[in-house]
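Hi team,

As requested, here is the filled-out complex form for the zinc ion run. I kept the field names the same as last time so the parser does not choke. Let me know if anything looks off before we queue the next batch.

— J.
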Amino acid sequence: MIQASCHCGQVKFTLAAMPETVTSCNCSACSRFSALWAYFEPENIKFISAEKDTGKYCWGDKTIEFHHCKNCACITHYRPTAIGNQKRMAVNFRLVDSKLLDSVKIRYFDGADSWEFINQEPKL
Ligand SMILES: [Zn+2]
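And here is what came back:
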């Protein structure tokens, strides 16, 4: 079981397993969040804190809502809206121990343009 926490500890959750990869996306939202997304089915994420402790942000096609800690502002996870894919959530893997983060491969997703994975870290 893997533990994750925002900076202040108000938002905490556990993950059932290590992800094989995490995803860095360059879309207009994710590039600003600087999140590294690990994808799970919702039943494999157990929140220790209540979602009342998070603020939400939803844009574009409105299929997912991004959550952040209302206290320390860390981007913590996203979950599907009512019209989104109910089987898929993502957590910001930057909230786990940095040694675990270092052990997982980062994939780069071109969410800004082609919507395909790209092989290398994009030039910033
Ligand atoms: Zn916090």
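Two things worth flagging: The mean pLDDT is 93. The chain has one domain: 2-114.

Thanks,
J.
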